[in-house]
Amino acid sequence: MTNLPTTLPPLPSSYDELLAAVSATADLGRPVYDPATGELISHAPVHGADVLDDAVTTARTAQKDWARRTDSERRDLLLRAADALEAVAEPLAELLSREQGKPLNGPNARFEVGGCQAWTRTAATTPLPEEVLVDDGETYATLAYRPIGVVGAIGPWNWPMLISIWQIAPSLRMGNTVILKPSENTTLSVLAMCHVINQVLPDGLLTVVAGDRAVGRLVPTHPGIDKIMFTGSTATGRKIAEGAAGTIKRLTLELGGNDAGIVLGDAFGADTSDPEVVAANDKVAEGIFWGAFINTGQTCAALKRLYVPDSIYDVVCESLVRVAAKMPMGVGLSEENVLGPLQNQNQFDIVDDLVKKAVESGATVLLGADPDYDAAGFFYPTTLISDIDGNNPLVTEEQFGPALPIIRYSTLDEAITEANRLNVGLGSSVWSADREAARTVAEQIEAGTTWINSHGTIDPRVPFGGIKSSGYGLEFGTEGLKHVAVPHVING
What we know:
Number of domains: 2
Number of helices: 16
CATH class of the largest domain: Alpha Beta
Strand order of the largest sheet: 12-13-14-11-10-16-17
Shape: globular
Protein backbone atom coordinates (compact mmCIF):
# COMPACT_ATOMS: atom_id res chain seq x y z
CA MET A 1 0.00 0.00 0.00
CA THR A 2 1.45 3.34 -1.02
CA ASN A 3 -1.54 5.51 -1.92
CA LEU A 4 -4.52 6.01 0.36
CA PRO A 5 -7.88 7.25 -0.94
CA THR A 6 -8.28 11.01 -0.56
CA THR A 7 -11.73 10.66 1.00
CA LEU A 8 -12.97 8.66 3.97
CA PRO A 9 -15.26 5.67 3.41
CA PRO A 10 -18.97 6.00 4.31
CA LEU A 11 -19.33 6.52 8.05
CA PRO A 12 -22.35 6.62 10.40
CA SER A 13 -23.89 10.05 10.01
CA SER A 14 -26.08 10.15 13.13
CA TYR A 15 -26.43 8.80 16.65
CA ASP A 16 -29.21 6.44 15.58
CA GLU A 17 -27.17 5.06 12.69
CA LEU A 18 -24.13 4.57 14.90
CA LEU A 19 -26.16 2.86 17.63
CA ALA A 20 -27.83 0.55 15.13
CA ALA A 21 -24.44 -0.51 13.79
CA VAL A 22 -23.28 -1.86 17.14
CA SER A 23 -26.45 -2.97 18.94
CA ALA A 24 -27.69 -6.52 19.34
CA THR A 25 -31.30 -7.65 19.24
CA ALA A 26 -33.03 -8.00 22.59
CA ASP A 27 -32.96 -11.81 22.52
CA LEU A 28 -29.23 -11.93 21.80
CA GLY A 29 -27.92 -9.11 23.94
CA ARG A 30 -27.76 -7.47 27.33
CA PRO A 31 -29.88 -4.40 28.09
CA VAL A 32 -27.96 -1.14 28.50
CA TYR A 33 -29.48 1.63 30.62
CA ASP A 34 -28.65 5.32 30.88
CA PRO A 35 -27.11 5.87 34.37
CA ALA A 36 -28.56 9.38 34.45
CA THR A 37 -32.17 8.49 33.71
CA GLY A 38 -32.54 4.72 33.99
CA GLU A 39 -33.90 4.60 30.44
CA LEU A 40 -33.11 1.69 28.14
CA ILE A 41 -30.58 2.72 25.48
CA SER A 42 -30.27 -0.51 23.50
CA HIS A 43 -28.82 -4.02 23.83
CA ALA A 44 -25.13 -4.85 23.78
CA PRO A 45 -23.89 -8.10 22.26
CA VAL A 46 -22.55 -10.74 24.65
CA HIS A 47 -19.72 -12.80 23.18
CA GLY A 48 -18.45 -16.12 24.45
CA ALA A 49 -15.13 -17.96 24.53
CA ASP A 50 -15.63 -19.14 20.95
CA VAL A 51 -15.69 -15.53 19.72
CA LEU A 52 -12.44 -14.85 21.58
CA ASP A 53 -10.78 -17.90 20.01
CA ASP A 54 -11.90 -16.89 16.51
CA ALA A 55 -10.74 -13.31 17.07
CA VAL A 56 -7.28 -14.46 18.16
CA THR A 57 -6.94 -16.76 15.16
CA THR A 58 -7.88 -13.94 12.80
CA ALA A 59 -5.62 -11.46 14.60
CA ARG A 60 -2.59 -13.75 14.41
CA THR A 61 -3.03 -14.17 10.68
CA ALA A 62 -3.61 -10.47 10.06
CA GLN A 63 -0.66 -9.47 12.20
CA LYS A 64 1.88 -11.04 9.86
CA ASP A 65 0.79 -8.85 6.95
CA TRP A 66 0.42 -5.79 9.16
CA ALA A 67 3.96 -6.18 10.52
CA ARG A 68 5.33 -6.37 6.98
CA ARG A 69 3.91 -2.97 6.11
CA THR A 70 6.22 -0.01 6.44
CA ASP A 71 6.06 2.24 9.45
CA SER A 72 4.94 5.02 7.12
CA GLU A 73 1.98 2.97 5.92
CA ARG A 74 0.85 2.14 9.44
CA ARG A 75 1.18 5.77 10.45
CA ASP A 76 -0.89 6.94 7.49
CA LEU A 77 -3.70 4.52 8.30
CA LEU A 78 -3.77 5.63 11.94
CA LEU A 79 -4.02 9.25 10.85
CA ARG A 80 -6.98 8.32 8.67
CA ALA A 81 -8.54 6.53 11.64
CA ALA A 82 -8.21 9.78 13.61
CA ASP A 83 -9.90 11.63 10.76
CA ALA A 84 -12.75 9.11 10.83
CA LEU A 85 -13.20 9.62 14.59
CA GLU A 86 -13.31 13.36 14.04
CA ALA A 87 -15.96 12.97 11.33
CA VAL A 88 -18.26 11.03 13.70
CA ALA A 89 -17.32 12.93 16.86
CA GLU A 90 -20.77 14.19 17.83
CA PRO A 91 -22.63 10.85 17.52
CA LEU A 92 -19.80 9.17 19.45
CA ALA A 93 -20.00 11.78 22.21
CA GLU A 94 -23.78 11.39 22.46
CA LEU A 95 -23.55 7.62 22.81
CA LEU A 96 -20.78 7.97 25.36
CA SER A 97 -22.83 10.44 27.37
CA ARG A 98 -25.88 8.20 27.35
CA GLU A 99 -24.06 4.99 28.28
CA GLN A 100 -21.32 6.22 30.63
CA GLY A 101 -23.29 9.16 32.03
CA LYS A 102 -20.70 11.91 31.61
CA PRO A 103 -21.98 15.24 30.29
CA LEU A 104 -21.28 16.37 26.75
CA ASN A 105 -19.53 19.51 27.98
CA GLY A 106 -16.72 20.20 30.40
CA PRO A 107 -13.85 17.71 30.49
CA ASN A 108 -16.26 14.93 29.62
CA ALA A 109 -17.78 13.28 26.52
CA ARG A 110 -16.78 15.69 23.75
CA PHE A 111 -13.45 16.11 25.49
CA GLU A 112 -12.95 12.34 25.55
CA VAL A 113 -13.76 11.88 21.86
CA GLY A 114 -11.39 14.73 21.04
CA GLY A 115 -8.74 13.01 23.14
CA CYS A 116 -9.19 9.84 21.10
CA GLN A 117 -8.30 11.79 17.97
CA ALA A 118 -5.31 13.49 19.63
CA TRP A 119 -3.85 10.29 21.08
CA THR A 120 -4.27 8.44 17.78
CA ARG A 121 -2.51 11.20 15.87
CA THR A 122 0.28 11.40 18.41
CA ALA A 123 0.81 7.64 18.39
CA ALA A 124 1.03 7.84 14.60
CA THR A 125 3.52 10.70 14.47
CA THR A 126 5.83 10.04 17.42
CA PRO A 127 9.23 9.05 16.01
CA LEU A 128 10.99 5.89 17.16
CA PRO A 129 14.10 5.54 14.98
CA GLU A 130 16.64 2.78 15.20
CA GLU A 131 19.31 3.69 17.74
CA VAL A 132 23.03 3.18 17.18
CA LEU A 133 24.39 1.93 20.50
CA VAL A 134 28.06 1.48 19.64
CA ASP A 135 30.02 2.47 16.54
CA ASP A 136 33.71 2.48 17.45
CA GLY A 137 35.23 0.92 14.34
CA GLU A 138 35.19 -2.57 15.81
CA THR A 139 31.65 -2.97 17.11
CA TYR A 140 28.50 -1.74 15.44
CA ALA A 141 25.41 -2.35 17.58
CA THR A 142 21.91 -1.08 16.97
CA LEU A 143 18.64 -1.20 18.89
CA ALA A 144 15.27 -1.26 17.17
CA TYR A 145 11.76 -2.14 18.29
CA ARG A 146 9.72 -4.88 16.61
CA PRO A 147 6.08 -5.98 16.92
CA ILE A 148 5.12 -8.24 19.81
CA GLY A 149 2.23 -9.97 18.02
CA VAL A 150 -1.32 -9.90 19.38
CA VAL A 151 -2.13 -7.45 22.17
CA GLY A 152 -5.01 -8.26 24.51
CA ALA A 153 -6.48 -5.00 25.80
CA ILE A 154 -8.90 -4.92 28.75
CA GLY A 155 -10.56 -1.57 29.31
CA PRO A 156 -12.50 0.18 32.11
CA TRP A 157 -15.85 1.96 32.21
CA ASN A 158 -14.75 5.41 33.35
CA TRP A 159 -12.99 6.59 30.16
CA PRO A 160 -13.97 3.71 27.90
CA MET A 161 -13.12 5.25 24.53
CA LEU A 162 -10.00 7.17 25.49
CA ILE A 163 -8.31 4.45 27.50
CA SER A 164 -9.07 1.96 24.74
CA ILE A 165 -7.30 4.28 22.31
CA TRP A 166 -4.31 4.40 24.63
CA GLN A 167 -4.12 0.65 24.13
CA ILE A 168 -5.11 0.44 20.46
CA ALA A 169 -3.22 3.23 18.71
CA PRO A 170 0.37 2.56 19.88
CA SER A 171 -0.12 -1.20 19.52
CA LEU A 172 -1.20 -0.85 15.90
CA ARG A 173 1.52 1.68 15.16
CA MET A 174 4.17 -0.81 16.25
CA GLY A 175 2.80 -3.57 14.00
CA ASN A 176 0.65 -5.51 16.47
CA THR A 177 -2.98 -6.50 16.18
CA VAL A 178 -5.43 -5.91 19.04
CA ILE A 179 -8.15 -7.94 20.75
CA LEU A 180 -10.11 -5.52 22.91
CA LYS A 181 -12.34 -6.62 25.79
CA PRO A 182 -14.36 -3.61 27.02
CA SER A 183 -16.10 -3.24 30.35
CA GLU A 184 -19.59 -4.72 30.46
CA ASN A 185 -20.78 -1.30 31.69
CA THR A 186 -19.69 0.62 28.58
CA THR A 187 -19.64 -1.94 25.78
CA LEU A 188 -21.61 0.07 23.23
CA SER A 189 -19.30 3.09 23.43
CA VAL A 190 -16.23 1.02 22.68
CA LEU A 191 -17.94 -0.99 19.96
CA ALA A 192 -19.02 2.24 18.28
CA MET A 193 -15.57 3.77 18.36
CA CYS A 194 -13.94 0.62 17.00
CA HIS A 195 -16.64 0.32 14.32
CA VAL A 196 -15.64 3.77 13.05
CA ILE A 197 -11.92 2.96 13.15
CA ASN A 198 -12.46 -0.34 11.35
CA GLN A 199 -14.04 1.43 8.39
CA VAL A 200 -10.48 2.62 7.65
CA LEU A 201 -8.26 -0.24 8.85
CA PRO A 202 -7.66 -3.54 7.03
CA ASP A 203 -9.71 -6.46 8.35
CA GLY A 204 -8.55 -8.37 11.40
CA LEU A 205 -6.35 -5.72 13.01
CA LEU A 206 -8.80 -4.62 15.70
CA THR A 207 -11.50 -6.88 17.14
CA VAL A 208 -13.81 -6.18 20.05
CA VAL A 209 -14.81 -9.19 22.14
CA ALA A 210 -17.80 -7.97 24.12
CA GLY A 211 -17.89 -10.74 26.68
CA ASP A 212 -18.63 -10.88 30.37
CA ARG A 213 -16.09 -11.23 33.16
CA ALA A 214 -15.72 -14.95 32.50
CA VAL A 215 -14.50 -14.17 28.98
CA GLY A 216 -12.32 -11.39 30.36
CA ARG A 217 -10.57 -13.90 32.59
CA LEU A 218 -9.63 -15.96 29.53
CA VAL A 219 -7.73 -13.12 27.85
CA PRO A 220 -4.62 -13.15 30.13
CA THR A 221 -4.26 -16.93 29.83
CA HIS A 222 -4.97 -17.30 26.11
CA PRO A 223 -1.91 -18.83 24.41
CA GLY A 224 -2.48 -16.82 21.23
CA ILE A 225 -2.17 -13.45 22.97
CA ASP A 226 1.33 -12.07 23.49
CA LYS A 227 0.82 -8.97 25.67
CA ILE A 228 -1.84 -7.69 28.05
CA MET A 229 -2.73 -4.05 28.60
CA PHE A 230 -5.13 -3.44 31.47
CA THR A 231 -6.55 -0.39 33.19
CA GLY A 232 -8.63 -1.04 36.28
CA SER A 233 -8.50 -2.03 39.92
CA THR A 234 -5.40 -3.32 41.69
CA ALA A 235 -7.25 -6.47 42.74
CA THR A 236 -8.09 -7.36 39.13
CA GLY A 237 -4.60 -6.39 38.05
CA ARG A 238 -3.13 -8.97 40.41
CA LYS A 239 -5.35 -11.67 38.92
CA ILE A 240 -4.32 -10.66 35.41
CA ALA A 241 -0.64 -10.82 36.33
CA GLU A 242 -1.15 -14.28 37.80
CA GLY A 243 -2.99 -15.46 34.69
CA ALA A 244 -0.38 -14.02 32.34
CA ALA A 245 2.52 -15.61 34.20
CA GLY A 246 1.86 -19.06 32.74
CA THR A 247 2.75 -17.93 29.22
CA ILE A 248 5.18 -15.15 30.25
CA LYS A 249 3.11 -12.46 28.60
CA ARG A 250 4.34 -8.90 28.67
CA LEU A 251 2.18 -6.62 30.80
CA THR A 252 1.21 -2.99 31.08
CA LEU A 253 -0.95 -2.48 34.17
CA GLU A 254 -2.45 0.92 35.04
CA LEU A 255 -4.15 0.19 38.33
CA GLY A 256 -5.97 1.97 41.10
CA GLY A 257 -4.71 5.17 42.61
CA ASN A 258 -5.47 7.33 45.59
CA ASP A 259 -3.67 10.45 44.45
CA ALA A 260 -2.52 12.98 47.00
CA GLY A 261 -2.33 16.73 46.45
CA ILE A 262 -0.23 18.91 48.73
CA VAL A 263 -1.03 22.61 48.99
CA LEU A 264 1.89 24.76 50.15
CA GLY A 265 1.37 27.79 52.35
CA ASP A 266 1.92 30.32 49.57
CA ALA A 267 -0.62 28.86 47.12
CA PHE A 268 -3.54 30.87 48.53
CA GLY A 269 -3.64 34.44 49.80
CA ALA A 270 -4.80 34.85 53.38
CA ASP A 271 -6.37 38.32 53.02
CA THR A 272 -9.91 37.40 51.98
CA SER A 273 -11.05 40.99 52.41
CA ASP A 274 -9.29 41.79 49.13
CA PRO A 275 -11.46 40.85 46.12
CA GLU A 276 -8.37 40.34 43.96
CA VAL A 277 -6.97 37.84 46.46
CA VAL A 278 -10.29 35.99 46.55
CA ALA A 279 -10.41 35.84 42.75
CA ALA A 280 -6.84 34.53 42.61
CA ASN A 281 -7.63 31.96 45.29
CA ASP A 282 -10.70 30.76 43.40
CA LYS A 283 -8.63 30.33 40.24
CA VAL A 284 -6.29 27.97 42.10
CA ALA A 285 -9.27 26.27 43.73
CA GLU A 286 -10.82 25.67 40.33
CA GLY A 287 -7.66 23.84 39.23
CA ILE A 288 -7.84 21.70 42.36
CA PHE A 289 -11.55 21.11 41.80
CA TRP A 290 -11.09 19.75 38.28
CA GLY A 291 -8.11 17.71 39.40
CA ALA A 292 -10.46 15.98 41.84
CA PHE A 293 -13.83 16.07 40.10
CA ILE A 294 -13.01 15.51 36.44
CA ASN A 295 -15.45 12.89 35.13
CA THR A 296 -17.33 13.35 38.41
CA GLY A 297 -14.32 11.93 40.27
CA GLN A 298 -14.32 8.67 38.30
CA THR A 299 -10.69 8.84 37.17
CA CYS A 300 -7.76 6.70 38.30
CA ALA A 301 -5.41 9.68 38.41
CA ALA A 302 -7.86 12.12 40.00
CA LEU A 303 -6.89 14.04 43.12
CA LYS A 304 -8.49 11.99 45.88
CA ARG A 305 -7.02 13.43 49.10
CA LEU A 306 -5.92 17.02 49.61
CA TYR A 307 -3.41 18.08 52.26
CA VAL A 308 -3.61 21.74 53.33
CA PRO A 309 -1.51 23.63 55.92
CA ASP A 310 -3.06 25.05 59.09
CA SER A 311 -2.17 28.60 58.04
CA ILE A 312 -4.55 28.68 55.06
CA TYR A 313 -6.83 25.71 55.79
CA ASP A 314 -10.04 27.71 56.22
CA VAL A 315 -9.25 29.90 53.22
CA VAL A 316 -8.76 26.86 50.96
CA CYS A 317 -11.95 25.21 52.20
CA GLU A 318 -14.01 28.36 51.64
CA SER A 319 -12.62 28.82 48.15
CA LEU A 320 -13.26 25.22 47.15
CA VAL A 321 -16.85 25.45 48.37
CA ARG A 322 -17.44 28.61 46.29
CA VAL A 323 -16.05 26.95 43.16
CA ALA A 324 -17.75 23.58 43.65
CA ALA A 325 -21.16 25.07 44.37
CA LYS A 326 -21.19 26.70 40.90
CA MET A 327 -20.65 23.47 38.96
CA PRO A 328 -23.98 22.15 37.60
CA MET A 329 -24.68 18.42 37.84
CA GLY A 330 -27.35 16.62 35.86
CA VAL A 331 -28.25 14.61 32.78
CA GLY A 332 -25.30 14.61 30.41
CA LEU A 333 -27.21 15.57 27.27
CA SER A 334 -28.20 18.89 28.84
CA GLU A 335 -25.63 21.36 27.57
CA GLU A 336 -25.33 23.29 30.83
CA ASN A 337 -24.13 20.35 32.95
CA VAL A 338 -20.46 19.59 33.62
CA LEU A 339 -20.92 16.88 36.28
CA GLY A 340 -22.97 13.73 35.80
CA PRO A 341 -24.05 10.59 37.63
CA LEU A 342 -21.84 7.80 38.81
CA GLN A 343 -21.79 5.14 36.14
CA ASN A 344 -23.29 2.28 38.12
CA GLN A 345 -25.02 1.35 41.35
CA ASN A 346 -21.96 -0.36 42.81
CA GLN A 347 -19.86 2.78 42.50
CA PHE A 348 -22.64 4.89 43.98
CA ASP A 349 -22.76 2.57 46.98
CA ILE A 350 -18.98 2.75 47.48
CA VAL A 351 -18.96 6.56 47.53
CA ASP A 352 -22.05 6.73 49.73
CA ASP A 353 -20.57 4.30 52.25
CA LEU A 354 -17.24 6.13 52.49
CA VAL A 355 -18.89 9.52 52.97
CA LYS A 356 -21.21 8.10 55.66
CA LYS A 357 -18.19 6.72 57.53
CA ALA A 358 -16.54 10.13 57.37
CA VAL A 359 -19.62 11.86 58.74
CA GLU A 360 -20.06 9.26 61.47
CA SER A 361 -16.45 9.84 62.53
CA GLY A 362 -17.16 13.51 63.20
CA ALA A 363 -15.78 15.03 59.99
CA THR A 364 -17.40 18.23 58.75
CA VAL A 365 -19.50 18.29 55.59
CA LEU A 366 -18.75 21.53 53.77
CA LEU A 367 -20.87 20.67 50.75
CA GLY A 368 -22.97 17.76 49.54
CA ALA A 369 -23.17 14.33 51.23
CA ASP A 370 -26.97 14.19 50.96
CA PRO A 371 -27.93 12.11 47.89
CA ASP A 372 -31.48 11.65 46.70
CA TYR A 373 -31.86 7.89 46.99
CA ASP A 374 -35.14 7.99 45.06
CA ALA A 375 -33.68 9.71 42.00
CA ALA A 376 -33.78 7.85 38.69
CA GLY A 377 -30.03 8.15 38.09
CA PHE A 378 -26.93 7.40 40.15
CA PHE A 379 -26.35 11.02 41.13
CA TYR A 380 -24.13 11.67 44.13
CA PRO A 381 -23.81 15.37 45.00
CA THR A 382 -20.48 17.15 44.84
CA THR A 383 -19.09 16.60 48.33
CA LEU A 384 -16.31 18.34 50.26
CA ILE A 385 -15.31 16.98 53.68
CA SER A 386 -13.05 18.85 56.14
CA ASP A 387 -11.67 18.20 59.63
CA ILE A 388 -11.15 14.56 58.75
CA ASP A 389 -8.61 12.21 60.29
CA GLY A 390 -5.91 10.89 57.96
CA ASN A 391 -6.82 7.32 58.86
CA ASN A 392 -10.47 7.67 57.88
CA PRO A 393 -11.52 5.27 55.09
CA LEU A 394 -12.48 8.21 52.86
CA VAL A 395 -8.78 9.14 52.94
CA THR A 396 -7.15 5.72 52.87
CA GLU A 397 -9.46 4.03 50.35
CA GLU A 398 -10.05 5.11 46.76
CA GLN A 399 -13.53 6.64 46.57
CA PHE A 400 -13.64 7.03 42.75
CA GLY A 401 -16.42 9.54 42.90
CA PRO A 402 -17.34 13.16 43.69
CA ALA A 403 -16.17 13.33 47.31
CA LEU A 404 -12.94 15.05 48.35
CA PRO A 405 -11.46 14.84 51.86
CA ILE A 406 -9.40 17.89 52.90
CA ILE A 407 -6.79 16.96 55.50
CA ARG A 408 -5.06 19.51 57.71
CA TYR A 409 -1.28 19.39 58.24
CA SER A 410 1.12 21.30 60.51
CA THR A 411 4.51 20.68 58.87
CA LEU A 412 5.50 19.98 55.28
CA ASP A 413 7.37 16.84 56.35
CA GLU A 414 4.13 15.58 57.87
CA ALA A 415 2.24 16.19 54.60
CA ILE A 416 4.87 14.40 52.50
CA THR A 417 4.90 11.44 54.90
CA GLU A 418 1.10 11.18 54.76
CA ALA A 419 1.06 11.46 50.98
CA ASN A 420 3.55 8.60 50.69
CA ARG A 421 2.32 6.20 53.33
CA LEU A 422 -0.32 4.45 51.23
CA ASN A 423 0.74 1.63 48.92
CA VAL A 424 -0.36 3.46 45.78
CA GLY A 425 1.58 5.69 43.44
CA LEU A 426 -0.17 6.72 40.25
CA GLY A 427 -0.36 10.51 40.30
CA SER A 428 0.15 13.35 42.76
CA SER A 429 0.37 17.13 42.77
CA VAL A 430 1.94 20.10 44.55
CA TRP A 431 0.31 23.53 44.59
CA SER A 432 2.47 26.60 45.15
CA ALA A 433 3.25 30.08 43.85
CA ASP A 434 6.93 29.08 43.91
CA ARG A 435 7.62 26.54 41.18
CA GLU A 436 11.08 25.64 42.50
CA ALA A 437 9.72 25.06 46.00
CA ALA A 438 7.02 22.88 44.47
CA ARG A 439 9.58 20.86 42.52
CA THR A 440 11.57 20.27 45.71
CA VAL A 441 8.48 18.77 47.30
CA ALA A 442 7.55 16.89 44.13
CA GLU A 443 10.90 15.11 44.14
CA GLN A 444 9.99 13.58 47.52
CA ILE A 445 6.60 12.20 46.50
CA GLU A 446 6.32 8.52 45.57
CA ALA A 447 4.25 8.45 42.38
CA GLY A 448 4.60 7.81 38.69
CA THR A 449 3.72 11.45 37.95
CA THR A 450 3.71 14.57 40.08
CA TRP A 451 2.04 17.62 38.58
CA ILE A 452 2.72 21.17 39.72
CA ASN A 453 -0.29 23.50 39.96
CA SER A 454 -2.50 21.04 38.11
CA HIS A 455 -3.56 17.44 38.55
CA GLY A 456 -4.23 14.70 36.01
CA THR A 457 -3.32 16.86 33.02
CA ILE A 458 -2.00 14.02 30.90
CA ASP A 459 -0.33 14.64 27.55
CA PRO A 460 0.00 12.09 24.71
CA ARG A 461 3.67 13.07 24.33
CA VAL A 462 4.56 12.51 28.00
CA PRO A 463 4.92 8.99 29.49
CA PHE A 464 2.40 7.97 32.12
CA GLY A 465 2.33 5.02 34.51
CA GLY A 466 2.23 4.03 38.15
CA ILE A 467 4.45 2.60 40.86
CA LYS A 468 3.73 0.53 43.99
CA SER A 469 0.35 -1.20 43.68
CA SER A 470 -0.73 1.31 41.03
CA GLY A 471 0.87 -0.90 38.42
CA TYR A 472 3.83 -0.91 36.06
CA GLY A 473 4.70 -0.16 32.49
CA LEU A 474 4.42 3.13 30.63
CA GLU A 475 1.97 4.54 28.13
CA PHE A 476 2.17 7.59 25.82
CA GLY A 477 5.03 9.11 23.88
CA THR A 478 8.15 7.29 22.77
CA GLU A 479 8.26 5.18 25.93
CA GLY A 480 4.69 4.06 25.36
CA LEU A 481 5.58 2.81 21.88
CA LYS A 482 8.49 0.85 23.32
CA HIS A 483 6.18 -0.87 25.79
CA VAL A 484 4.06 -2.34 22.99
CA ALA A 485 7.09 -3.67 21.15
CA VAL A 486 10.08 -5.93 21.78
CA PRO A 487 13.66 -4.64 21.67
CA HIS A 488 15.93 -6.17 19.04
CA VAL A 489 19.68 -5.64 19.24
CA ILE A 490 21.83 -6.39 16.19
CA ASN A 491 25.49 -6.54 17.10
CA GLY A 492 28.14 -6.92 14.41
